[in-house]
Design brief:
Number of strands: 5
Radius of gyration: 13 Å
CATH topology: Ubiquitin-like (UB roll)
Strand content: 15-25%
Distance between the termini: 14 Å
Number of helices: 2
Oligomer: single chain
Order of helices and strands: EEHEHEE
Length: 136
């Protein structure tokens, strides 16, 4: 999928300069992020949690293709909040629509960690699609 949302002004996020780890809960999957490989996919902002997750076979729903036009990629940042880019007003508007949002909620497609610390994110139960076809 991938693409851009023409209604949202692009904001550059600070990308990591060193390797760091992202842990996805409740799957308890930890992956190492290599800044030299960013962007991994075409979904979400380069280096975003969605970009990282999809490239490491961690499934996060993203109905809009990662362009901040929905709230299906809602995640909760449990550790490392200070290493993320600031959420835009457009992202916060979408997060407000997500079931079970918290003060630490982000859209995985927009949340870009800068690598200054390891991070942990929770993928809410409603966002785990267990009936999806395998990749072709």
């Amino acid at each position: 999928m991938g693409g851009e949302n023409p209604y949202i002004k692009k904001r550059a996020a600070r990308l990591p300069e060193r390797k760091f780890k992202v842990t996805f809960q409740p799957m308890n999957v930890t992956v190492e992020v290599d800044p030299a490989r960013i962007p991994y996919t075409r979904d979400g902002e380069p280096g975003s949690i969605l970009d990282i997750a999809l490239s490491h076979d961690v499934d996060i729903d993203h109905a809009c293709g990662g362009v901040a036009a929905c709230s299906t990629c809602h995640v909760i940042v449990r550790k490392g909040q200070s290493s993320f880019n600031e959420a835009s007003d457009a992202e916060l508007d979408r997060v407000d629509e997500a079931p079970g949002n918290t003060p630490d909620s982000r859209l995985a497609c927009q949340a870009v960690p800068d690598g200054t610390s390891d991070v942990e994110v929770e993928v809410p139960a409603w966002n785990r699609n267990l009936a999806r076809e395998p990749n072709h």
